[in-house]
Design goal:
It is a single chain. With about 350 residues, the protein is an all-alpha fold. It contains 19 helices and no strands. The chain has helices at about 5-20, 25-40, 45-55, 60-70, 75-90, 95-105, 110-125, 125-140, 145-155, 160-175, 180-190, 195-210, 215-225, 245-260, 260-275, 280-295, 295-310, 310-320, 330-339. Helix 5 runs antiparallel to helix 6 (about 95-105) and helix 12 crosses helix 15 (about 260-275). The longest helix is centred in the first third of the chain and has 19 residues, at about 5-20. The chain is elongated and about 75 Å long.
């Protein structure tokens, strides 16, 4: 092969890499194709080609491209890793696991490889081994919310609910706005009989993803357990009596809040708002409960909803209500009061 071909292949590889970084996968593929046509042993171009094909959901072709790259550079951890991902997308989990292990032979300190290996083990139903893989990943990079979340999922499957709850808490520490993590935290808390925590977790999930019907249903289940509603006493259950008066739920919430049972009160106010979404006082009372529980963002979210209905009234109440004192110095609160 002459020098001009080598230089030309290098140029097309460079262009392909730029397009890949810009998520222009078709253009990246076209340039990587030119590079490998000019220089068939350009393993970096084969790797790039595989990445572009994977991003285009052409996983079988991506697999073949990674195989071409590894034939030239068999000790490339990156290639084995991405080969494993392609195999996983093709449903070939055992082969994927073997490829992850080959990748780790060459780079045992890559947190992302341990993490993705754990996901494959979950797909295989090997939850205890998945937890071990996530643990290795987190020992190398402990601030990855996704690894804590997936570790929690594996622990849920093992019915190790306390450990799962702790994992979800760590995930929330690094990514507090993920609705799925709050939802799964609610599942763990519910399974442990921690119904107050379950109701609060499902409520947070709903706030982050309002269309999450599963979270709404699970919150109702946790609420029913929390306030003693069951099949023998279903007259207050919205699902069994659609025409239920929202004031029943509202007044129950007020009574529970007076007893400092704020999580239960919140659940009642949320049910009130499912029946009557325009009942502003439920939003305001819910804001007070969240503030008393220390959930500043949720308190502000609900106060904002109340102010949207009756601005002057709820602004004046908020300024004088000691229940909201923990949010008085928040910038969002000051902006909300100023209007």
């Amino acid at each position: 092969m002459n020098l001009i071909q080598n230089l030309e292949a290098a140029w097309y590889y460079h262009l392909g890499s730029r397009h890949l970084e810009a998520n222009e996968h078709d253009r990246a593929l076209a340039n990587f194709n030119k590079a490998v046509n000019l220089q068939s042993d350009h393993y970096q171009a084969w790797f790039g080609r595989g990445m572009a094909l994977g991003n285009l959901e052409r996983h079988l072709e991506a697999l073949k491209s990674f195989d071409e790259a590894l034939a030239v550079q068999p000790n490339a951890s990156f290639g084995w890793h991405n080969r494993a991902i392609a195999l996983g997308k093709l449903g070939r989990s055992l082969e994927a696991l073997n490829s992850f292990d080959r990748a780790l032979e060459f780079n045992p300190c890559a947190a992302s490889i341990w993490h993705n290996r754990g996901l494959t083990l979950i797909d295989m139903g090997l939850y205890d081994k998945a937890v071990q893989s996530f643990d290795r990943s987190l020992s190398l990079h402990p601030e990855v919310a996704g690894a804590w979340y997936n570790r929690g999922n594996a622990l849920l499957e093992l019915k190790l609910y306390h450990q799962a709850l702790n994992s979800f808490d760590r995930a929330i520490e690094f990514n507090p706005d993920d609705a799925k993590t709050w939802y799964n935290r609610g599942l763990a808390a519910n399974s442990m009989g921690l119904y107050k925590q379950a109701v609060a977790s499902f409520g947070r999930s709903i706030a982050l993803k309002p269309g999450g019907t599963e979270a709404v249903g699970e919150r109702r289940v946790a609420l029913a357990k929390l306030v003693g509603l069951n099949q023998r006493n279903a007259k207050f259950t919205p699902a069994s009596e659609p025409a239920v008066d929202y004031l029943i739920w509202y007044n129950l919430g007020v009574e529970l809040a007076r007893k400092c049972r704020y999580s239960e009160a919140i659940a009642c106010y949320e049910t009130t708002l499912e029946i009557n979404p325009d009942f502003a006082n439920a939003f305001y009372n819910q804001a007070c409960c969240y503030a008393l529980l220390g959930f500043v963002d949720l308190a502000l979210d609900n106060l904002q909803r109340a102010v949207e209905f009756i601005p002057n009234l709820y602004r004046e109440l908020a300024l004088a209500d000691s229940d909201l004192s923990c949010i008085w110095k928040q910038e969002r609160f000051e902006a909300l009061i100023r209007g």
